[in-house]
Amino acid sequence: MNIETTIAHILVDDLFVEVPPSQIGPDDSLRDVLGVDSLGFTELRAQCEHAFDITISDEDFVPEHFSSIRTLTNLVAGLRAPLPDTAGNR
């Protein structure tokens, strides 16, 4: 499963959003369209950290990153990207 699909399934399976994953659009508002509340966002953060083996810092846990599946996908993809190897490049 890709990142967007995984997040849609987390929303339905773990946060009990009552919209089938196939009908959740990448730009649907997690709060206004899908009804995720403050506790839901905390759970979504934890589920994404577990599913993608990442850590979402407090600095990244902001509405700009959690407004839609697309914005959250971009955050997850950025956190999963390998860091540039700066050691030994001298």
Describe this structure in words.
By secondary structure, the protein is mainly α. It has one domain: Non-ribosomal Peptide Synthetase Peptidyl Carrier Protein, Chain A, CATH 1.10.1200. The chain has three helices and no strands. α1 crosses α2. The longest helix is centred in the middle third of the chain and has 15 residues, at 38-52. It is globular and about 45 Å long. The model has no long low-confidence stretch (mean pLDDT 93).
Brief summary:
The chain is mainly alpha-helical. The protein is built from three helices and no strands.
Structure characteristics:
90 residues, mainly alpha, Non-ribosomal Peptide Synthetase Peptidyl Carrier Protein, Chain A, 3 helices
Write the topology of this structure.
Blueprint: H1 3-13, H2 38-52, H3 69-80
Helix pairs in contact: 1-2, 1-3
Which percent range describes the beta-strand content?
under 5%
**What is the name of the CATH superfamily?**
ACP-like
Number of separate structural domains: 1
**What is the tally of helical segments?**
3
| CATH class category name | Mainly Alpha
Query: Could you tell me the number of beta strands?
Result: 0
Poorly predicted spans: none
Shape: globular
Separation, N- and C-terminal Cα atoms: 39 Å
Radius of gyration: 14 Å
Please trace the helix and strand order, writing H or E for each element. Answer: HHH
Main sheet characteristics: none
* Helicity level: 40-55%
Mean pLDDT reading? 93
Q: Which structural class is indicated by helix and strand composition?
A: mainly alpha
